[in-house]
Design goal:
Elements lengths: L7 E6 L4 H14 L10 E5 L2 H15 L4 H4 L1 E4 L5 H9 L1 E6 L4 H4 L1 H9 L3 E4 L4 H18 L2 E3 L7 H13 L2 E13 L7 E2 H11 L2 H11 L18 E3 L4 E5 L4 H16 L5 E9 L1 H17 L3 H9 L1 H4 L4 E2 L5 H6 L1 E12 L11 E10 L1 H19 L9 E3 L1 H5 L4 H7 L3 E9 L1
Parallel strand pairs: 1-2, 1-4, 2-3, 4-5, 5-6, 6-15, 7-11, 8-12
Antiparallel strand pairs: 7-13, 9-10, 10-11, 13-14, 14-16
Helix pairs in contact: 1-2, 1-16, 4-6, 6-7, 7-10, 8-11
């Protein structure tokens, strides 16, 4: 990438937003990394110079770097002003887009980046936006030689690269994976900023358009290799973890399936079947979740219901989402684990009529998911775009993290920054 021609290697767009402030602090940490062998010129971008300055001052205070403000550029631009987005994109090698919900605010940034030869990563967990950008802009991005990488935060780097890591660690052919997400909290519990809640409300309220988009794409089903992965019941008991689980309704399944399609169609790799679940503990937690889920799914169907959900996130999410977001204590005490159970076939064993004869269990562990792990994943994805150019897909395009980074050193970078990939067990049956 032509970093020499641009004043900034990285630009954090939406740096003064709730999540953007954490991404800003994470870029500042990366800039100060003692192992860094070269400069990392970067900037923050948004509508208000004063708010951007405050975000940098807060990062400087957290990191004990009083000179940070003088080291970072400030770019004023507005999502409603395409010319200002062009000016931002022209100054960056990679834009880190933190402005959501992406279904409303994401496309102008993608368009500006492509038109100005700038790569972009986002932390979107909205399948409709992610898939729409692929169909609308993949060829244009490829023509410009830029990389548009969605879902580069907790949604969905742990899941997407976790499946790839599991495949790489299996001594044979991986054919199916189930993942189980467990969120660990401290005594003060869990809280997420309501921007994530809004994205979920709008996404579930617009499922019909996502179905139409998928029908219009007219993609052939991926071949099923080996034994078909059986779907679990909406509430099921995971014997291996000794907990109840429910299907994970985030973007992970959509993203992983798109990655597997890319790897199969472009690199002729065997596609992996995938299902994602989230653990919910004991039967009492299951009952609570059932009531909350039914409540949410009823209200999200109607316009006035969506308005109420958005206006009172704390009430309708039973305290899990709020307009204030989590406290520092809540973030410090929180962490996540994604456990992957894979099955496959040893080398030389036919996948046609035989049962899988290899089992593997891997894990991805990390700090608080939304505002600690997400900035780490996003910034390391951007650093991979800057530094591992020869290992990226040739020519550019719109990609999932797994499609873009399967041959790069991103997993090694994440391991060094506290998002750890490991093999728990592997055995031949």
């Amino acid at each position: 990438m032509a970093t020499e021609k641009r004043p900034f290697h990285l630009v954090v767009f939406g740096a003064s937003g709730f999540t953007g402030q954490f991404v800003t602090a994470e870029v500042a940490r990366e800039q100060a990394d003692p192992e860094r062998s070269s400069r990392l010129p970067w900037a923050v971008a948004g509508r208000s110079r004063e708010r951007l300055r405050r975000a940098l001052e807060e990062a400087a205070r957290k990191l004990g770097r009083p000179t940070l403000l003088s080291e970072v550029g400030i770019i004023i631009c507005d999502i409603t002003n395409p010319a200002s987005l062009d000016e931002m994109a022209k100054q960056a090698t990679v834009v880190l887009n933190c402005v959501g919900p992406y279904r409303f605010y994401g496309e102008p940034v993608v368009k500006a980046c492509i038109e100005n030869g700038t790569s972009c990563v986002d932390i979107c967990g909205e399948p409709q936006f992610l898939e729409l950008m692929k169909w609308k802009y993949h060829e244009k991005a490829a023509e410009k030689g830029v990389y548009i990488i969605g879902s580069s935060g907790f949604d969905s780097i742990p899941a997407d690269l976790g499946v790839i890591y599991t495949r790489n660690k299996m001594n044979g052919t991986l054919t199916a994976v189930e993942s189980f997400l467990t969120i660990h909290t401290g005594p003060e519990g869990l809280c997420i900023h309501d921007s994530t809640w809004k994205s979920a409300v709008y996404g579930f309220g617009d499922q019909s358009n996502l179905r139409k988009l998928r029908q219009a794409s007219n993609l052939k089903p991926l071949p099923i290799v080996g034994a078909k992965l059986k779907r679990r019941w909406p509430i099921s008991f995971c014997r291996e973890l000794n907990v109840y689980s429910v299907p994970f309704l985030g973007s992970d399944v959509s993203v992983v399936k798109r990655t597997q399609r890319y790897l199969h169609e472009n690199l002729e790799e065997s596609p992996v079947q995938y299902a994602a679940y989230v653990t919910v503990g004991g039967i009492t937690s299951v009952i609570k979740l059932m009531f909350a889920g039914l409540f949410f799914l009823f209200f999200v169907k109607f316009g006035i219901g969506r308005q109420l959900l958005i206006k009172f996130p704390w009430l309708f999410s039973f305290g899990c989402f709020s307009k204030q977001g989590p406290t520092q204590k809540q973030m410090d005490a929180a962490s996540f684990t994604v456990t992957f159970f894979g099955q496959g076939y040893s080398q030389g064993l036919s996948t046609d009529k035989n049962k899988p004869n290899i089992r593997i269990c891997t894990q991805v562990k990390g700090p608080e998911a939304s505002y600690v792990a997400t900035p780490i994943a996003m910034v390391q994805a951007a650093m991979t775009l800057l530094n591992d150019v020869s290992d990226l897909p040739k020519g550019g395009g719109v990609f999932t993290p797994g499609a873009a980074f399967s041959k790069t050193k991103l997993i090694d970078r994440l391991n060094k920054h506290g998002i750890e990939f490991s093999v728990i067990s592997s055995s031949e049956v």
